[in-house]
From TrEMBL:
Residue ranges annotated for the Topo IIA-type catalytic domain, each copy included: 29-445
Active site: 110 (o-(5'-phospho-dna)-tyrosine intermediate)
GO MF annotation terms: ATP binding; DNA binding; DNA topoisomerase type II (double strand cut, ATP-hydrolyzing) activity
Disordered, as annotated region: 623-668
Organism: Desulfocapsa sulfexigens (strain DSM 10523 / SB164P1)
Name of this protein: Type IIA topoisomerase (DNA gyrase/topo II, topoisomerase IV), A subunit
Top EC class of this enzyme: isomerase
Length: 668
């Protein structure tokens, strides 16, 4: 039984690994050589096979591609539309949908396509292409296409395989080719994404094809009450962006009157704002709460030599540049060999006709004798040829018709031979300096097609939009001391609430208790916090707290100042040691605050009042003990901020006399 389970486990593991490998290499992850997934490569090869310069019905192209691709017409159609909408390799005719609005394409029987001039020039060369049998063995398909531009980085890619995924950002056509020229010159390069939707992109955290980027919509203030979105972030559509704006409006994060989509060839989304709300502030809120700003985490995973790996933009570009140089060298060598074969044939033909060698075969009685006779007659001229004469050369000569011999033009033949020799000389020159030849080739492509592909996305650096700062204060948090509850759904039964704080759902509330305990809580609908809260307020960085408190064990008072404390949500902290007699006597906020402490009267004291100017005390940590007010006990403390200081009263009681007036010697 255990052996059967073991065999079953091995079977599942083997089949799962096979499936994983297939999905990675044959479905989801593009190849570094031509930047294409298998379905895209098969579509382009099919279009090349069908190419006659005219448009073809997409339905016919999909049907023809099914001879190479075993996964059905819908996957082929979706891949073709996606490839065509990238705008580089396929010319379109008809409704292919809209990348801005997310509208889908018309049915394949209604739309047409063909290879673009760029695709014809840079994607195909039978001499450089390795072919294998298709899935049913009836046709031959390319392993990869000999692409002459870095298509993987140009178009980008997005795919999910088993245990891995890829998200490659598209880049600008001209920038890629200029970078290749720099690589050929030994210079360093740095490239950043460029999206067909335009917009703005912050690449401060971009790590050469990986890392993180942030994309923003391009917005403008038509007036202080109207915002127009002209470009949208990558990965979004006008529909998804409008949905996110409406969702933010329903949840109270922004206030708008209406949002209208006028997008056609260009994006135009108009947002009308509510009364009392202005465009300058709302733009920040749109970035914070809607898809007007989206984070993207690129992941440059590709297939190289049949194995998936994660690479960088620079690695891919250097690989593609080295491959381009090698492909161009191979093309030149193939052309050189063909020209040399052609020159050899022309020289043989010239000798055969001008030296009248064809007359030597008139008396030969057998084919073998004819071959030998021609070979013998050509022997004196072998030194003029590029290579030795073989039987195939002689057979080709014997196929020349008498009509052609009679009309033979010596001058024309010499001119053609000279032209062929000139072409060979040019190729040899190029082969000696392949870097220059490759650079010139790239420049030629740039000159021919570069103007059609300007940069659309603006590179910039965003300042972080604080959600708490731009959120609308659409909630009012109240505190009911009688019941001990806090929240934005609390309704005080009688009179005005003691604490009523306008805030947003992103704010944090600092609670300071009479006993010196404090904690920070989230804004909530209803929360029990107790009956002895001294102060409640929103967390504000750098806010100064001035406090006078009684230390119960010593029965003395202390003064201290501190700023907004650091915290962990819902964790309890203390401003001073816990004791049943310890409590806060005065708490005020900000600079230039003052107070007056009234001391317990003493017959020997000159004054029973201490004036406290908080700015004279150093800022310390919230848990620091503070500075003692007086060695005597304090009866009470009052806030005197903004009041004119009163002259201190001197206690004139003689030693031993009791103070009959408890308030004598105090200033209030």
């Amino acid at each position: 039984m255990e052996s059967q389970h073991g065999k079953l486990r091995q079977l599942f593991e083997y089949n799962f690994l096979e499936y994983t490998s297939y999905v990675i290499k044959e479905r989801a992850i593009p190849d570094i050589n031509d930047g294409l997934k298998p379905v895209q490569r098969r579509i382009l090869q099919t279009l090349h096979n069908m190419d006659d310069g005219r448009f073809h019905k997409v339905a016919n192209v999909v049907g023809a591609t099914m001879k190479l691709h075993p996964h059905g017409d819908q996957s082929i159609f979706a891949a073709l539309v996606n490839l065509a909408n990238k705008g580089y390799l396929i010319d379109r005719q008809g409704n292919y949908g809209n990348i801005f609005t997310g509208d889908s394409a018309s049915a394949p029987r209604y739309i047409e396509c063909r290879l673009s001039p760029l695709a014809r020039e840079i994607m195909f060369n039978k001499d450089l292409t390795e072919y294998v049998d298709s899935y049913d063995g009836r046709m031959r398909e390319p392993v990869t296409l000999p692409c002459k531009i870095p298509l993987l980085l140009l178009q980008g890619a997005d795919g999910i395989a088993v245990g891995m995924a890829t998200k490659i950002m598209p880049h600008n056509f001209c920038e890629l080719l200029e970078a290749q020229k720099k690589i050929l010159q030994g210079e360093d390069v740095r490239l950043y994404p460029d999206f067909p939707q335009g917009g703005l992109v912050d690449v401060s955290q971009y790590n050469n094809g990986n890392g993180k980027i942030r994309c923003r919509a391009r917005m403008e203030e038509l007036n202080e009450k109207t915002i127009v979105i002209r470009e949208i972030p990558f990965t979004t559509t006008t529909e998804s962006l409008i949905d996110s704006v409406e969702k933010a409006a329903k949840s109270g994060k922004i206030k708008i009157v209406s949002i209208s989509d006028y997008t056609a060839e260009n994006v135009e989304i108009e947002i009308k704002l509510a009364r009392g709300i202005y465009a300058k502030d709302t733009i920040k809120a749109l970035y914070a709460f809607t898809d007007c700003e989206v984070p993207i985490s690129p992941n440059l995973t590709l297939v190289q030599n049949g194995v998936p790996r994660t690479a960088t933009v620079e690695e891919v570009l250097r690989y593609n540049t080295a491959k381009l140089l090698d492909d161009l060298r191979r093309e030149l060598e193939i052309d050189k060999n063909r020209l040399e074969d052609r020159l050899h044939a022309r020289l043989l033909e010239q000798i055969f006709i001008e030296e009248r060698i064809y007359k030597t075969i008139e008396e030969k009685t057998s084919y073998k004798a004819v071959i030998a006779g021609v070979d013998e007659a050509l022997a004196p001229f072998v030194s003029e040829l590029k290579r030795p004469v073989v039987t195939e050369d002689i057979e080709r000569l014997l196929e020349i018709r008498i009509k052609r011999i009679s009309r033979y033009d010596i001058n024309k033949q010499k001119k053609e031979i000279k032209s062929i020799r000139g072409d060979i000389k040019t190729i040899v020159k190029h082969l000696k300096d392949m870097v220059l030849f490759t650079t010139n080739y790239i420049s030629k492509i740039l000159t021919k097609y570069g103007e059609s592909y300007p940069r659309l996305t603006e590179l910039t650096e965003f300042t972080e939009v604080s959600v708490r700062r731009v959120a609308l204060s659409n909630l009012t948090v109240c505190y009911d001391r009688k019941d001990g509850f806090l929240g934005h759904q609390i309704k005080v039964s009688s009179g005005e609430p003691e604490f009523s704080i306008p805030c947003s759902e992103y704010d944090r509330l600092l609670l300071i208790y009479e006993t010196g305990m404090y904690k920070v809580v989230q804004v909530t609908d209803k929360l029990f916090v107790g009956h002895d809260i001294r102060w409640i307020g929103k967390i504000q960085k750098g806010l100064v707290f001035n406090m006078v408190y009684k230390e119960g064990q010593e029965n003395l008072c202390y003064v201290k100042r501190f700023t907004t404390p650091k915290f962990i949500l819902d964790k309890e902290y203390r401003l001073f040691d816990e004791h049943k007699q310890s409590k806060i006597l005065l708490l005020s906020l900000g600079e230039e605050k003052s107070a007056r402490a009234s001391l317990v009267p003493s017959p020997r004291a000159k004054s029973n009042v201490v004036e406290i100017v908080f700015d004279e005390y150093l800022l310390k940590g919230p848990s620091a003990k503070g500075k003692r007010v007086s060695p005597r006990s304090v009866r009470r403390v009052i806030d005197t901020t903004g009041k004119t200081p009163q002259p201190k009263k001197i206690n004139l009681a003689l030693p031993g006399m009791e103070n009959t007036d408890p308030g004598q010697g105090e200033e209030e």
